[in-house]
Amino acid sequence: MKMATERELTDAKLEAVEARVEARLAGIEGKIDRILDRVEASVTAAGEAKEEAKLAKTAAGNTKWNILFTGLTVLALLLAMWAIWNQGMELVAGMFSVNPTSGSPPQ
């Protein structure tokens, strides 16, 4: 059996250290890749949230106008009903009013 020389032992030790360092670097690269994927997913989610916020803001504005126009429509409807009611009441009052010249209701 031949004994390894000092140089061969040193080379073997350096190769072992190099292999361990490369293994650690590969692990670190994997972790960095996972972190980058998470950051990219977060950026994508933030962009989607921003778009949803824009849509919600637009919808809120549309809802505000819908409520305003609905209120105005209800007000117009109430005024129309009030006018019709008053006309009806005047008609009924005219039908049952006493004629001042004859003293009796109109025929």
Question: Can you offer a commentary on this structure?
Answer:
The chain has about 110 residues and is mainly α. The protein has one helix and no strands. The protein has one helix at about 5-95. The longest helix is centred in the middle third of the chain and has 90 residues, at about 5-95. The mean pLDDT is about 90.
Question: What key phrases describe this protein's structure?
Answer:
0% strand; 107 residues; mainly alpha
List the helices and strands and how they pair.
Elements: H1 6-95
Summarize the structure.
By secondary structure, the protein is mainly α.
From the helix content, strand content and strand pairing, which structural class follows? Answer: mainly alpha
Arithmetic mean of pLDDT: 90
Listing every helix as H and every strand as E from the N terminus to the C terminus, the arrangement reads: H
- Mind describing the biggest β-sheet? none
What's the total count of β strands?
A: 0
The percentage helix is over 70%
- Per DSSP, the total helix count is 1
The poorly predicted ranges are: none
- Cα distance spanning the termini: 145 Å
- What Rg is obtained from the alpha carbons, in whole angstroms? 46 Å
Tell me the strand percentage band: under 5%
Shape: rod-shaped
